[in-house]
Design goal:
Blueprint lengths: L1 E2 L3 E5 L2 E4 L2 E4 L7 E4 L4 E3 L5 E8 L4 E8 L8 E9 L2 E10 L5 E5 L12 E4 L5 E4 L25 E6 L2 E7 L5 E6 L7 E6 L10 E9 L4 H15 L5 H7 L2 H5 L3 E5 L2 E3 L16 E3 L2 H13 L5 E5 L23 H14 L3 E6 L3 E3 L29 E3 L5 H14 L6 E4 L19 H17 L3 E4 L12 E2 L10 E2 L2 H6 L6 E2 L14 H8 L2 E3 L6 H21 L4 E6 L6 E6 L4 E5 L4 E5 L5 E5 L4
Parallel strand pairs: 19-22, 19-31, 22-23, 23-26, 26-27, 27-28, 30-31
Antiparallel strand pairs: 1-2, 2-3, 3-4, 5-6, 5-11, 7-8, 8-9, 9-10, 10-18, 11-17, 12-13, 12-14, 13-29, 14-15, 15-18, 16-17, 20-21, 24-25, 32-33, 33-34, 34-35, 35-36
Helix pairs in contact: 4-5, 6-7
Length: 614
């Protein structure tokens, strides 16, 4: 038996924590998946050893598996070590033997199978999955569950029981996928799948389990993880980011308006409209948006962030990273400059859509030598987006491309206070085996962050498509960060952890992507103290309603943007009535059934309303 302050390691399958016995699923088959689809269970090893270990940090046991038939000298070694308040489960491939490893599923999932138990999972903004939830959940995760992507905004999961809870933190999430198994009626099984780096399992992989006592809940897990992240230096708060870049403070309270420029869908794109080819081309001149922002100013919109899509000559999602010059049909350099001057002159902020991952084969400077290369020498490609055939640009080159393009924009007098680098915090990390610019997935994320830092150094506030734990030192805001469609019980885990580090806009209406069925984005924006979108097309009463909603959100965000979300609670069994509390004492209550809300500010001011009344 191995003992820590509150933990006892009984054996490789059982841990006692705060008086509760936690068991790993004995029927789960930990296994190695090889290229070609062969799956080899750990139990196939003809030699297995177990021995106690002691280190200066803690003690535990070491497990070794070797002599796998048909796989040469393949040898795996795992240390289960109690270190202070956590149990580290670490796996290393001592020898890789024959075959190419694609992933290793280890350790087995912990079990929390009682009716009152639930899983806490960071699929996008987050969800709770009761152990006996009647529906199948997460049969297919985005990006096959790869962490550091939309599949997992944060690299942890947990489960809560009446006797205690656990938090499982993946220490190398860039090289990890995870799986949720929840058939209709349950139970939950969640586990990690470790990936090779540049074709090899070249370093130790660790899942750290933190065990918490009875009375803990999903909010406790979020606060625990934030403390862990703070100790590692993962996040920087918005207040700290504003000290580096004053435009961060100016962004708080803004309505967000995304506007179109040039649309051009190539015939080889998945989105090309064969039946109505004329719909593949569209132009909205820069001058049109000058008129729109002037009108919004006249109607009392005092704060706005204008995000310009499709501003480059090739058109939206075409020929990146060679997007310059600004589209001539939209107004060219003079038109973009005039738009930026108008926006800035009205006291608004402006940014541009840009892209440094999708690498289009018809880009003028395209070279296959700059694309991400697989360990076998192949180059992955597809033709999904408007620009058609593409590879992925090696992120090691992205910072120089960002500098090349933005130096030209700055030199031309384009006034930018913020901007958007697409997909960086939504899509999974890439790796590149090209010997001229090799890159691991971990390095890929560092290069993406470097692009954000370049913008900050020039007074430009960086944003990207969604949010992610790895970017919390550099990212300031995003396009959206809503819920995974089909979530069991949507819950704002990311905001409970990082509300004071990043600003999240919400689409305002019902039926928007990522907005749970039967609810509106406006109500979620209120509950989360977030930003709201202002329509680029609405007129009359619809626009007046949109602006009225923005005013409510703007006042709230100015109060709580720099604050932590300290609590979230379901106030009724049907979960329609929910409440959040922020670290300054601001309290927001919403009722998704009636669309009613109440905001109670620290000074006693109360704002009551109904979303439908605006």
């Amino acid at each position: 038996m191995h003992t820590s302050t509150c933990l006892k390691l009984l054996d490789a399958q059982r841990i006692e924590a705060h008086g509760k016995l936690w068991c790993f699923d004995p029927f789960f088959e930990t296994a190695i998946l090889f290229a070609g689809g062969e799956q080899v269970p750990f139990s196939a090893a003809q030699e297995k050893r177990e021995q106690p270990i002691q280190t200066g940090l803690g003690d535990g046991i070491r497990l070794t598996w070797s002599q796998f038939p048909g796989h040469g000298d393949l040898t795996l070694e795992a240390d289960i070590l109690l270190v202070g308040d956590r149990a580290d489960f670490s796996l290393v491939t001592v020898r890789e033997g024959r075959g190419t490893i694609q992933e290793i599923a280890w350790p087995a999932p912990l079990m929390a199978d009682d009716a009152a138990d639930y899983a806490v999972v960071n699929t996008m903004q987050g969800q709770l999955i009761p152990s006996h939830w009647p529906e199948q959940v997460a049969e297919k995760l985005p990006f096959d569950g790869q962490m550091c992507s939309e599949a997992a905004y944060m690299p942890w999961w947990g489960e809560v029981t009446e006797q205690g809870s656990y938090l499982a933190v993946v220490q190398s999430p860039w090289d990890t996928k995870y799986t949720i198994r929840h058939p209709a009626g349950g139970p939950n099984r969640i586990y990690a799948r470790h990936l090779p780096s540049l074709g090899r399992m070249r370093y130790q992989r660790t899942v750290s389990y933190y065990f918490l006592p009875a009375g803990s809940d999903y909010g406790t897990l979020c606060r625990t993880y934030r403390h862990i992240a703070d100790e590692k230096g993962t996040p920087m708060t918005l207040r700290e980011k504003a000290a580096e870049n004053p435009n961060v403070d100016r962004l708080i309270g803004c309505g967000v308006m995304h506007v179109d420029g040039k649309t051009h869908v190539t015939p080889d794109s998945r989105y090309y409209n064969q039946e109505a080819p004329e719909k593949n081309e569209r132009l909205v001149p820069f001058a049109h948006w000058e008129e729109r922002v002037r009108m919004l100013k006249e109607k009392g919109v005092t704060q706005l962030y204008l995000h310009q899509d499709g501003w480059g000559q090739p058109g939206y999602d075409n020929q990146h990273p060679d997007y310059l010059p600004p589209c001539r049909e939209l107004g060219g350099w003079d038109g973009l400059r005039a738009l930026s001057e108008t926006v800035t002159g009205l006291g608004y902020l402006m940014g541009l859509h840009d892209q440094y991952r999708d690498y289009y084969l018809d880009a003028p400077t395209y070279s296959a030598d700059s694309a991400c290369q697989n360990p076998d020498g192949s180059i992955y490609g597809h033709a999904i987006w408007a620009g058609g055939r593409q590879n992925y640009l090696c992120a090691s080159l992205a910072p120089d491309y960002v500098k090349r393009n933005f130096d030209q924009l700055f030199a031309a007098g384009i006034q930018l206070q913020a901007t958007y680098l697409d997909v960086f915090t939504c899509n999974e990390a890439d790796e590149c085996a090209n010997p001229r610019h090799p890159m691991t997935r971990a390095q890929c994320l560092q290069y993406r962050a470097q692009c954000f830092h370049y913008l900050t150094a020039h007074g430009v506030v960086p944003s990207s498509e969604e949010v992610n734990d790895w970017a919390m030192r550099s990212q300031v805001f995003c396009h959206w960060a809503p819920y995974l469609t089909g979530s069991a019980i949507p819950v704002p885990l990311f905001n409970l952890t990082y509300h004071d580090c990043v600003m999240i806009p919400w689409k305002m209406d019902a039926g928007e992507w990522g907005i749970p069925e039967g609810t509106t984005g406006f109500m979620h924006a209120l509950l989360n103290g977030g930003m709201g979108y202002i329509s680029d097309q609405a007129e009359g009463e619809a626009l007046a309603r949109n602006i009225a909603q923005w005013r409510i959100l703007s006042r709230l965000q100015k109060q709580v943007a720099y604050e932590k979300m300290t609590e979230h609670a379901f106030l009724t069994p049907d979960r329609n009535r929910q409440e959040t509390v922020f670290s300054d004492g601001t309290r927001v209550t919403v009722d998704f059934a009636t669309n009613g809300f109440r905001i109670v500010y620290p000074d006693g001011e109360v704002v009551d309303g109904e979303a439908d009344s605006f």
